[in-house]
C-alpha cells in the first residue's frame, strides 16, 4: 500500500500514499521497465491509499502543523 511505504519513507504530507502511487505510475522508468507489470496492483491500491490517507489526516495535520503553530 502506498500509505505504508510513504510512512516508511517518512513522507508526512497529506495524502502521501496517493501521491506516491501516482508518482510511481507516471514515472517514465517505471513504465518502460519490467516493473510495468505492477501497474494494475498500484491502480487498485490508489483508492485504498486514498481511504487510508483520509483516516490519517488528523494525525498528519497534528504532526505537520503543531510545530508551525508554535512559531
Layout of secondary structure:
Blueprint: H1 2-8, H2 16-25, H3 28-32, H4 39-55, H5 57-69
Helix pairs in contact: 1-2, 2-4
Walk me through what this model shows:
With 71 residues, the protein is mainly alpha-helical. It has helices at residues 2-8, 16-25, 28-32, 39-55, 57-69. α1 (2-8) packs across α2 and α2 (16-25) runs antiparallel to α4 (39-55). The relative contact order is 0.19.
- Model regions low in confidence, pLDDT < 50 over at least 5 residues: none
Largest sheet: none
Could you state the oligomeric state of the chains shown? single chain
Work out the helicity level: over 70%
Strand content: under 5%
Overall average pLDDT: 83
Overall outline? elongated
Q: Based on helices, strands and strand pairing, what is the structural class? A: mainly alpha
Number of helices: 5
As a whole number of angstroms, the C-alpha radius of gyration is: 14 Å
Q: Would you count the extended β strands for me?
A: 0
Task: Give helix and strand order, one letter per element, not per position.
Answer: HHHHH
Amino acid at each position: 500500500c502506498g500509505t505504508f511505504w510513504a510512512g516508511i519513507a517518512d513522507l508526512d504530507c497529506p495524502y502521501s500514499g496517493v501521491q506516491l502511487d501516482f508518482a510511481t505510475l507516471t514515472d517514465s522508468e517505471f513504465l518502460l521497465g519490467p516493473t510495468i507489470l505492477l501497474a494494475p496492483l498500484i491502480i487498485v491500491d490508489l483508492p485504498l491509499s486514498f481511504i487510508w490517507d483520509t483516516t490519517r489526516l488528523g494525525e498528519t495535520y497534528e504532526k505537520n502543523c503543531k510545530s508551525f503553530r508554535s512559531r
